[in-house]
Amino acid sequence: MNEFGTKYRVGIFGSSHGPCVGAKAEGCPAGSKISEAIIQAELDRRSPGKGAHTTPRAERDRLEVISGIVEGKATGATIVGLVRNKDFDSSVYDSFKRVPRPGHADYPAMVKYKGHHDHRGGGQFSGRMTAGLVIAGAIARQVLDKQGVRFLAQSIQIGSVRMEKVVPFSIAEKVARANAVGCADRDTAECMKDEIVRAHEDKDSVGGIVKCTILGVPAGVGEPFFGSIESDVSAMMFSIPGVKGVEFGSGFAAASMKGSEHNDPYTIRGGKVVTKTNNAGGVLGGLATGMPIEFKVAFKPTSSISRPQMSVDVVKKVPVELEVKGRHDPCIVPRAVPVVENCAASVILDLMLQGGFL
Predict the structure, then answer these.
(1) Could you give the angle at the alpha carbon of 232 between the alpha carbons of 23 and 162, nearest 5°?
(2) What are the phi and psi torsion angles at 122 (to 5°)?
């Protein structure tokens, strides 16, 4: 099912080598000011750059709004936006009709759809589908921006290179957006870029971690249990191709902490209830505490690599050595940064609408 949400409902459509990819968004409050230029700017952030650290597939990703926005405002109707696919070569994927690529969804898709799946460029399982997620999220964050809710995602690890510095939100926002890998520290960003280039030269790939911080979400946003902030954000993040892990606050490190270490003591600051620490990542009982919501998303190394790999011919039932052709990112983390940000915006808007905060 390619739909998500309750009050703000997001659906995506298209495929990697089809005519287009896009999104439909229902529930955006009528009258909300929605700038197509802002949506385009977010799509531009997701688009590949230039150099050995990214894919040579050069899609322009020019936004086309089909419905739902007139004269810069949401009409209350379903918003439909898309981008055209133009720079692709499907011929290199012919051999994968019967020989699944390691690390890709080829084999389970073959089984589920009885061989009728779109194998070209990964079809509906491709990272290309995230363009639609960005469109929907860029709409949501414009509504939330008026409420003082801000989002910042940044690369904190690529391969073995990890950013150890803690950078204030306002500085991190500027620096992360100004470099090719989305890292908030310039020196670390250069090391990350070198790590990606080395993997590319070695005909390999690397993964990494994206950290997302959300400011301005009022205390109480979220629903208990199945509609919690953690549940919904995690579900959305796992919809991004390549994601293998999500943690909030101290995350898995909490397992080795004592309660006296992990509990966040309350205090009053500026007349408001806050916590001295934020091990909870801004969420308790599935609800926002009013502190920054912080979570990390782990991405696996890109599955498409230029090295020979072993697979099988599913028809002949024999081993086959394959080498993946086509044009691919040696690391998807830099381009995933705006995807994480905008996906988070869709979730927060949905939860705030559910709770009557908007």
Answers:
(1) 90
(2) 90, -5
HSE-up of residue 173 (Cα within 13 Å, Cβ side): 10
Confirm whether pTM is higher than 0.85. yes
CB count, 10 Å around CB of 187?
10
Q: What is the SS3 assignment for 346?
A: helix
Question: Which of 76-90, 133-147, 252-266 comes out lowest in average pLDDT?
Answer: 76-90
| Nearest by Cα to 83 from 38, 137, 47, 122 | 47
Task: List, in order, residues 6 or more apart from 4 with CB less than 8 Å away.
Answer: 10, 11, 235, 236, 239, 346
| DSSP type of residue 307 | S
Q: Count Cβ atoms below 10 Å from residue 111 Cβ, excluding itself.
A: 12
d(CA 249, CA 289): 12
Structural tokens at position 70? 């007139």
Task: Determine the angle formed by the axes of helices 229-237 and 333-354, rounding to 10 degrees.
Answer: 140
Determine which helix (DSSP H) or strand (DSSP E) holds 199, and give its type and residue range. helix 186-201
Packing angle, helices 130-145 and 333-354, rounded to 10: 50
- Structural domains of the chain, with CATH: 3-354 (3.60.150.10)
> Model confidence at 126, in pLDDT bands (50, 70, 90)?
confident
Helical segments of 1-92, H only: 36-46
Burial of 71 (0-12, 13-18, 19+ CB in 10 A): exposed
Q: What is the pLDDT of residues 30-58, one digit of tens each?
A: 999 999 999 999 999 998 765 555 655 55
